[in-house]
Write a structure and sequence with these properties.
The complex is a heterodimer of chains A (468) and B (818).
Chain A (H helix, E strand, L loop, with lengths): L14 H8 L8 H4 L5 E3 L11 E7 L23 E5 L2 E4 L4 H5 L4 E4 L9 H10 L14 H8 L13 E4 L19 E3 L12 H24 L1 H19 L4 H6 L3 H7 L9 H14 L5 E6 L17 H21 L12 E7 L2 E2 L12 E2 L5 E4 L8 E2 L1 E2 L6 E3 L10 H11 L6 E3 L8 E2 L4 E2 L2 E2 L11
Parallel strand pairs in A: 2-8, 2-9, 5-13, 6-7, 6-8
Antiparallel strand pairs in A: 1-16, 3-4, 5-12, 9-12, 10-11, 14-15, 16-17, 18-19
Chain B lengths: L5 E2 L40 E2 L3 H19 L24 H10 L15 H20 L11 H5 L18 H13 L9 H13 L5 H9 L5 H10 L3 H14 L5 H10 L11 H17 L15 H14 L2 E4 L5 H13 L4 H10 L30 H17 L20 H4 L3 H9 L4 E4 L12 E4 L5 E3 L2 E4 L49 H10 L2 H16 L32 H13 L4 H10 L27 E2 L2 H12 L29 H9 L16 H9 L1 H7 L7 H7 L12 H15 L5 H28 L5 E2 L1
Antiparallel strand pairs in B: 1-2, 4-5, 6-7, 8-9
Helix pairs in contact in B: 1-3, 2-3, 5-20, 6-8, 8-21, 10-11, 12-13, 14-18, 15-17, 19-20, 19-21, 22-27, 24-25, 25-28, 27-28
Classes of the chains: A alpha/beta (468), B mainly alpha (818).
């Protein structure tokens, strides 16, 4: 099946029929040959920056308040115990809630001119992963950026790479964008860091049983293969994907996905929301240190959707809890990525692009009647670190309430949109972000970086200023 | 070891699994190939004829039921030499062909009547093999571990069956076959043979019921000699054989007026009638049925809805209710928003087999106001926006657009999404010829049929109120700062051109509309406009359901679920400009359907039979086109797919996988707080989105591709996480454990007391292996599989059985319908 040639296809319109049919309903498999590099065209010759070998995208789900974090605006509303200090010339930080990150502002860059397209959480979260408008027409075929990176890196995958190329942490499964039309090997593996080691981390007792079962299964599968060539072909495709699941049983998985007492102490654990950000960060560090084939790590930290009583520490979750959780986990992660080195003695941070951002920002100024802040797409913040990002820089600026961008802080003189962030990731990962896959199930080309915004054509691209 | 193998001296190649006996395959094709498996007890020798699996089951049961009267259960006869079949004396010739001849033609002036009208040549060939094996067995009796019964042969006879011959003779059973096989014949395309009984059974269970059959049902089906047993099974799964039972019961009562319900039920049971294809308490349920019929006859009690005998086909209702819930996105906007009533509505429509056109008209014209809810508004009430968030109320025109998009997609198969933002020209030339000629303005006109229909929550506090209001009014609802507080009932629009659809409305979802355009309701397929004074959406419903394209879309959608690929595929990608074979589109376009005339024939048949969904499914399932095997001898080319030259394999849906695993292992075991009465089948979860707080189950289903009925449609993609769930998940681990109460493994171990390893002599062990294969994979093991399993079990014992259950659940065939 994988050796099908395109010449068996007549006019282009039949291609989507072909894709479904040739895959005998197992969508995805037959796409491998179709996505031959020949069909991945680049619009122009941009030069990807490179430098990153892995990317962590930390999604602050719910829409974090920029004015209570990295674009702090002081006013009558600012609580005293935010302990706002000038940590360096021109940078005021709420040291009371972000103690760790306040002390290491030279390690990351802050972008204060982030834009978003949609006030709806789910649709904006989709943007962050897919880099384009949610469209029911294309939702089946559009892959997450993590899957595109997995696909781009598949040739560089080593035989001993036992981890999936795309791992996600603590994502609500219904908002996670998968591999779309790309092969299932590019699909994300979602892990809940708060639930102890994933099931594939086996104890030594279990391992013996597991290996016995696995071998037994292999024997039985082979028998079925021998029995019928044509059917065997169908099933061998299915087995390819379970083979990679078996690889997860690698003894090293235990070290990677088990939280040590030390990490438990250092990273703490989040109390709110869906998962345990600290544990996810510790595991992400282990994954990168293991260098076992993972290229994209997508994490969710929930929930920054603070509508009510956000400065009330007794309220079940609030600005303090969210800031503190993020601060502890992210500052330790950045520390550890700097002090941990790869086998060539290089700090991991040098090859790891770390981005933290929400799907949109929040309304600034004084609190609203619910003592909270509302969804806001006119401004927002993002943090960038590692892989050549110049730390200590601040890009963009907003007005005194933090609602309006007054300085875009980069060459395109407009807000930095999710599409631009994705282009930046592609570039850092050495991928030409103007590439497109021209032969898709819907017939519409898939551009790595979208060319059309909800406001019409837009020249999305790398935020090169970050790397200056 | 015992010799149970005949030498036929035939040469062939290819090794096929043991379940592969299909009607139409001849004994002459029996292969001589062997599998040499060191250490196994029953290695067939070269040149062996073998009989096993369902063919063996058929032959054994037929022999016992019919032949044994004169020839004895083991062929030893009744004392007369002529009746002894195992004495190596053959009065009429002892070759396979001669014995077959004797059975077919009978022996004059004896009780041996010609059997050729009762059995097919293939069945007679199987009987001949069986008789030969009985003889072998007789001679093997002196051996140390002689075999007892004929069923034992299944365990001991190794072997293979012939590869399906290319272009085997497959009868044409209905108009579907005429089209499918006719086209292959005309184009010289080879095709596969018919599926074996077990293949067919698993397939039709999954397609109609969404779950696999029980081991008992498989054994019964395979040994059933009735020539129309496949048709009967289809009817039974569709709930269409209830009248058959009823007829039989009334018939018995007439002949035996003094019989009570129990006596009649026992007689029915003896004749093979079952309420449910796999009912363990068949007698009980038959008695209830008969009792109900009696009461009905006596006029003392009305037949009440919901009694068991109405619900023979409950899993059918579960699966197809779920299907339509997915199609109509039931669950979007939250569980409370009419979700449960709409589910019941769909269930009841299927249960009473309400004509589909009637149902669709009802969906499009239903109204509800606060305090007067109406389940049928479930379709219209899903199309607000993707999700109603907080106090954000979706724009009226956006709702109209969404309704137009989904109604046109679901009922006419055409995807208007693209032209809801821009004209087709300059966009869709290479995608869809018809759409490339449509304009955005035409789309607005399609949406304008709903311009005077308002879909909204009666109060702004959406979380407090689960009702939707759907009603027709001439003007917008009254609003104040808090949202909609009421609505105006102006009887008619003061201006007939005012269709209630404003082109200057702001839009959240689409590009701004053009205030200079002209908009009035106009059906996009034919440019028809509603009759003056008529309710526009009632007119829309009428136009849609009287359109041939509606029937085409429906039959093609259902077809694609049974045949894996639609005649037009994807099923919602119709190009109306490319459907008529007598009026082909300009080059390079081609006619879109793979079988345009079959599509129209199916549509006409559907219309003629009153838009009867069950009739449609039955027609498809009964065709031999549906009943082809996936096995294909010779070179298979991808382009054969569009001919349906063999069964096209599909991956099961998330729910089908979970339900089949639960049924196979008999471990359901998940309590969901919100649904205390839940029976443990994912297909029967009242809502896939809400209340499913049991995270492992939720995650399992989502990663296997469950849809969320909003932004994510169900899919059958693959990912590592899926297989890692299958391989490592605790859900699965629990299902395979021997100490999980009532698990299959648990029952098997308990069911053979005293189970002492090392003393089992192989027989019970092999029965257990058979049983696990039947329950899990719905087929018999092949000889080598069985040998491997036996070896593993002997070595690892209790743990080995768990291993076997685990491995079978993880075999790739488990998650596909093949």
């Amino acid at each position: 099946m994988r050796n099908h040639k395109l010449n068996s296809l007549a006019p282009r319109l039949s291609r989507r029929e072909f894709i479904r049919v040739a895959g005998v309903g197992v969508t995805g498999y037959s796409l491998l040959p179709i996505l031959d590099p020949l069909n991945v065209e680049a619009k122009e010759s941009v030069k990807p920056r490179g430098g990153a070998e892995v990317c962590i995208l930390l999604m602050l789900q719910g829409g974090p308040s920029q004015v209570d974090t990295f674009d702090l605006k002081e006013g009558a509303w600012t609580p005293e115990d935010f302990d706002v200090q000038t940590v360096k010339p021109g940078l005021r930080m709420p040291v009371g809630t972000l103690p760790g990150l306040s002390r290491m502002t030279d390690k990351y860059a802050i972008a204060r001119s982030m834009g978003a397209w949609d006030l709806n959480h789910d649709r904006s979260i989709y943007y962050l992963q897919a880099g384009r408008t949610f469209s029911p027409n294309r939702v089946h075929e559009v892959p997450s950026i993590g899957s595109v990176l997995a696909y781009e890196y598949q040739d560089r995958r080593g035989e001993t790479d036992f981890l999936p190329p795309f791992i996600s942490f603590n994502i609500n499964t219904d908002i996670l964008v998968g591999c779309g039309m790309l092969p299932p090997s590019a699909a994300p593996m979602n892990i809940h860091s708060g639930r102890g080691a994933p099931a594939f981390v086996l104890s030594e007792d279990e391992r013996a049983a597991f290996e016995r079962r696995q071998n037994f299964l292999k024997e039985l599968e082979n028998e079925w293969h021998d029995a019928d060539h044509e059917r065997a072909r169908i099933f061998s495709d299915l087995e390819d994907y379970s083979a990679s699941a078996f690889m997860l049983g690698n003894p090293k998985s235990g070290e990677i996905f088990t939280i040590t007492d030390e990490d438990r102490e250092r990273y703490g654990k989040s109390q709110s929301g869906f998962g345990h950000l600290g544990f996810a960060c510790a595991m992400a560090r282990n994954i990168i240190a293991a260098d076992a084939g993972t290229r994209f790590i997508f994490m969710q930290h929930s929930s920054w959707d603070l509508h009510n009583n956000i400065y009330d520490k007794d309220y079940h979750w609030n600005q303090y809890t969210m800031n503190m959780e993020l601060d502890l986990a992210l500052s330790k992660l950045l520390d550890d990525l700097e002090t941990t080195t790869d086998d060539q003695g290089r700090p991991l941070i040098d090859k790891t692009l770390v981005i933290a951002m929400g799907e949109f920002g929040r309304s600034g100024g004084a609190l609203d009647e619910l003592k909270g802040r509302n969804h806001h797409i006119g401004s927002g913040v993002a943090l960038f670190a590692g892989a050549g990002v110049k730390g200590g820089q601040i890009h963009g600026a907003t007005n005194e309430t933090g609602d309006e961008i007054t300085d875009f802080g980069w060459h395109k003189e407009r807000p930095m949109y999710p599409e631009d962030v994705l282009a930046t990731i592609y570039s850092a990962m050495g991928v030409d972000w103007t590439k497109k896959i021209t032969q898709t199930p819907s017939g519409r080309a898939f551009e790595y970086t979208e060319e059309i915004s909800p406001k019409g054509p837009m020249d999305f691209g790398e935020i090169s200023e970050l790397f200056a | 070891m015992v010799m149970l193998v005949l030498f036929a001296g035939l040469a062939a190649d290819g090794v096929v699994d043991a379940n592969a006996i299909a009607p139409g395959e001849s004994v002459d094709d029996v292969t001589t190939d062997t599998v040499t498996e060191p250490g196994t007890e029953a290695t067939p020798e070269e040149g062996a004829i073998v009989l096993e699996g369902e063919a063996l089951a058929f032959a054994a049961s037929t022999f016992k039921a019919k032949c044994a009267l004169c020839h004895g259960e083991e062929g030893e006869g009744t004392g007369e030499a002529a009746t002894n079949l195992v004495d190596e004396v053959w009065q009429h010739g002892g070759t396979l062909e001669e014995i077959a001849q004797t059975i077919s033609e009978g022996v004059e002036k004896t009780l041996m009547r010609p059997q050729k009208d009762k059995y097919t040549p293939e069945q007679i060939a199987d009987l001949v093999k069986y008789i030969k094996l009985l003889a072998q067995e007789k001679h093997a009796e002196d051996a140390p571990s002689a075999l007892g019964t004929a069923t034992e042969l299944t365990d001991e006879v190794a072997g293979k069956l012939p590869a399906a011959p290319n272009v085997p003779v497959v009868a044409r059973r209905n108009f579907i076959d005429e089209h499918i096989f006719g086209k292959m014949e005309a184009d010289g395309i080879p095709h596969a043979g018919l599926a074996s009984d077990v293949e067919f059974m698993r397939r039709v269970y999954l397609d109609l019921w969404g779950r696999i059959p029980t081991a008992e049902a498989i054994r019964r089906f395979v040994s059933d000699g009735a020539p129309d047993k496949r048709d009967l099974l289809i009817d039974r799964l569709l709930g269409l054989d209830a009248p058959r039972i009823r007829r039989a019961a009334l018939d018995l009562k007439e002949k035996n007026p003094d019989w009570n319900p129990e006596a009649i039920a026992k007689e029915l049971l003896a004749r093979g009638y079952r309420e449910e294809a796999e009912d363990p308490d068949a007698l009980d349920s038959l008695m209830r049925t008969v009792g109900g019929i009696f009461r009905e006859i006596d006029g003392k009690e009305e037949v009440r809805e919901g009694q068991r005998y109405w619900l023979v086909e409950m899993p059918f209702l579960s699966k197809w209710t779920f299907f339509f819930e997915d199609l109509f996105r039931n669950g979007l906007n939250g569980e409370g928003s009419n979700q449960k009533p709409f589910r019941e509505y769909l269930w009841n429509n299927l249960k009473f087999n309400v004509p589909y056109d009637y149902m669709v008209r009802e969906l499009l014209t239903a109204s509800a106001t606060r305090g007067r809810s109406n389940a049928a508004t479930g379709f219209l009430a899903r199309h607000g926006t993707l999700r109603n968030v907080g106090a954000v109320y979706p724009n009226h025109e956006d709702i109209c657009d969404e309704i137009a998009v989904y109604a046109t997609r679901n009922f006419l198969g055409v995807n208007l999404q693209c032209i809801s933002c821009h004209d087709g020209a300059d966009h869709l030339e290479e995608v869809n010829l018809w759409l490339s000629r449509r304009t955005r303005e035409e789309f607005w006109r399609q949406a304008a049929f709903f311009g005077r229909t308002y879909v909204f929550k009666p109060t702004v506090h959406t979380s407090l109120n689960h009702e939707f209001a759907v009603l027709d009014a001439a003007s917008m609802p009254r609003r104040d700062a808090a949202g909609i507080v009421g609505y105006d009932f102006a009887a008619t629009a003061s201006n007939p051109d005012d269709c209630g659809y404003a082109l200057d409305a702001e839009t959240e979802l689409r590009m701004p509309r053009d205030p200079n355009a002209k908009v009035y309701p106009e059906y996009i397929m034919t440019d028809q406009r509603p009759a003056a004074g008529a309710n526009p959406r009632a007119e829309f419903a009428r136009m849609i359901t009287s359109d041939l394209q509606f029937a085409r879309t429906t039959v093609n959608l259902i077809w694609s679920k049974f045949m894996t690929v639609g005649i037009v595929d994807p099923p919602f990608g119709f190009d109306p400009a490319r459907l008529d074979p007598d009026n082909p589109p300009p080059a390079p376009w081609t006619i879109q359907p793979s079988h345009p005339r079959l599509l129209d024939a199916l549509a006409s048949d559907f219309i003629e039979h009153g838009y009867d969904l069950r009739h449609l499914m039955r027609t498809i399932c009964r065709s031999n086109a549906y009943q082809l095997t996936a096995r294909f001898a010779g070179e298979y080319k991808p382009e054969y797919d569009r001919y349906y030259a063999r069964k096209l394999v599909r991956r099961l849906s998330a729910e089908e996988i979970y339900d089949s695993m639960a049924k196979a292992t008999n471990v359901f075991g998940h309590q969901v707080k919100a649904y205390p009465d839940w029976n443990g089948y994912a297909m029967d979860l009242p809502s896939p989105l809400n209340g499913l707080c049991d995270e492992p189950l939720r995650e399992f289903l989502f990663f296997l591709g469950r849809g969320d009925r909003g932004t994510k449609e169900p899919d059958t993609n693959m990912s590592v996480i899926q297989s890692s769930l299958m391989v490592y998940s605790d859900l699965l681990k629990k299902k395979v454990r021997g100490d999980t109460e009532e698990s299959r493994v648990n029952t098997l171990l308990k069911g053979h007391p005293p189970w002492k390893w090392g003393e089992e002599g192989g027989k019970k062990l092999r029965e257990m292996i058979d049983e696990l294969f039947l329950w899990t994979l719905s087929r018999f093991p092949t000889a080598t599989e069985k040998a491997k399993a036996e070896k593993h079990l002997k070595e690892h014992r209790d743990i080995g059985i768990e291993d076997l259950q685990w491995a079978l659940l993880n075999k790739s065939e488990m998650i596909v319908n093949y």
